[in-house]
Amino acid sequence: MAGRYIIRALLLLFLAVVSLSGCAATKPGKTVFDYEQEASEAYAGGRYDVAVNRYEYLVEQVPKDPNFWFRLANSYAKNGEPEKAVVAYQNTLLRDSTYEKAWYNLGIIQMQQALKTFIDMQKAMPPNSPVHSLAEEKMNGLFLLLGQNPDEEHPAADTK
Question: How high is the pLDDT of residue 157?
Fold first, then answer.
């Protein structure tokens, strides 16, 4: 845990030096800190497409920061882009394999993807198929694990 805080402090120091030096990597008039604030405000305000845009820029500028990757993953998940969220969570974990919330959210997204597969399978195959009852059993188990009601709309990932 202490290592994560030291890395974060060093990253913030690096970002401060870069932004004060007028680095060409940022657009004129905006610093990395400006983009982080815009991304955070967009996410908090439910404007996930804007948050995605800003976090994509941030991971491009600071690709080693697991926090930016994690926030990008959450933004993708909330924006209804689970495949991209999975990749971004995996990128988070490549940078910090102990990032607990990334592991958790990745698992939730993958369970939701599996649930969608079983739901689509139920719609596509005839009820008398030998796999139908097995698939229904797995589907109901996933509903239970995700705390969802099978009769309701299936929301996007509940990211932490």
Answer: 43
pTM above 0.85, yes or no: no
Q: Alpha carbon of 88 to those of 81, 125, 142: distances in Å?
A: 11, 33, 23
Worst-scoring range by mean pLDDT, 16-20, 46-50, 89-93? 16-20
The runs of H, that is alpha helices, within 21-99 are 32-44, 48-61, 66-78, 82-95
- Domain annotation covers residue 153: no
Q: Is the pLDDT of residue 51 over 90?
A: yes
Contact yes or no for 63/51 (Cβ under 8 A):
no
For residue 32, what is the domain's CATH number?
1.25.40.10
Q: How many Å apart are CA 20 and CA 105, to the nearest integer?
A: 35
**H helix or E strand, kind and range, residue 48:** helix 48-61
Residue 92 covered by a domain: yes
Angstrom distance (rounded) from CA 16 to CA 36: 13
Report the range of poorest mean pLDDT among 48-57, 75-84, 97-106, 126-135: 126-135
**Tokens standing for 2?**
């202490």
